[in-house]
Amino acid sequence: MTDPIADYLTRLRNAIKANHRVVEVPASNLKKEITKILFEKGYILNYKDIDDTVQGSIKIALKYDPVNKVNAIRKLTRISRPGLRKYVGYKDLPRVLNGLGIAILSTSKGVMTDKEARELQIGGEVLCYVY
Known about the structure:
About 25% of the residues lie in helices and about 30% in strands. By secondary structure, the protein is of the alpha+beta class. The strands form 2 sheets. Strands 4, 5, 6, 7 and 8 form a 5-stranded antiparallel beta sheet that branches. The two termini are about 25 Å apart. The model has no long low-confidence stretch (mean pLDDT about 95).
């Protein structure tokens, strides 16, 4: 697999389109951090790390609106990819839907959202947009 983050986002996207409640993805430290950010920002209901194999996996419970049956995540977009990395300075950090969405960045201080990176005045690699 050349791009595990794109695979992670595609598994989430496919589970949302199929109206699944739970999706299981192979684990890595970066995927765990992205999942933690999605949970803290309210895009997923819950998650659990499972260490039953060498690599382990992450079980993610997706969040749906009970009335309209619409998922909390409207769109997941991979920005930086292995063939074309996207790095930004703190002055050029992207704003997703004028602040309604989040951009997830990998910085020297760890994985964080665009708002947190703006407060700390650090740039990094833009991994994905979520809204």
